[in-house]
Design the sequence.
């Protein structure tokens, strides 16, 4: 992908997800995440760059609902999302908690 443009560190995860675009609704897996965005591994993409998508992370404690824009897509593999800045405050807190937990888990694996 060339030079790294991310401003926040992403962490490897394996989170079941549902997503919905303007024309398509599918299931997938979030394979990396940060407080700014994520990558959704999914078949039959059906989304376009800059499209607004609704993303539901299916967690053991409930669903985290996020909105974001497709910033790139990898045909037949998935797409990258940059989260919208106006995420509901409660969902933003849950996202931040999830990312902090993954940061701790990641640092423990490196030891």
Sequence:
């Amino acid at each position: 992908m060339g030079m790294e443009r991310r401003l926040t560190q992403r962490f490897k995860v394996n989170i079941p997800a549902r997503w919905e675009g303007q024309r398509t609704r599918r299931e997938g897996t979030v394979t990396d995440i940060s407080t700014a965005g994520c990558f959704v591994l999914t078949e039959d993409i059906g989304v376009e760059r800059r499209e607004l998508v609704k993303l539901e992370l299916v967690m053991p404690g409930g669903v985290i609902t996020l909105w974001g824009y497709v910033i790139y897509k990898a045909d037949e593999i998935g797409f990258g999302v940059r989260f919208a800045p106006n995420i509901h405050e409660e969902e933003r807190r849950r996202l931040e908690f999830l990312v902090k937990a993954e940061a701790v888990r990641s640092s423990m694996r490196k030891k």
Summary: Helices lie at 89-110. Residues 45 and 78 are 6 Å apart (CA to CA).
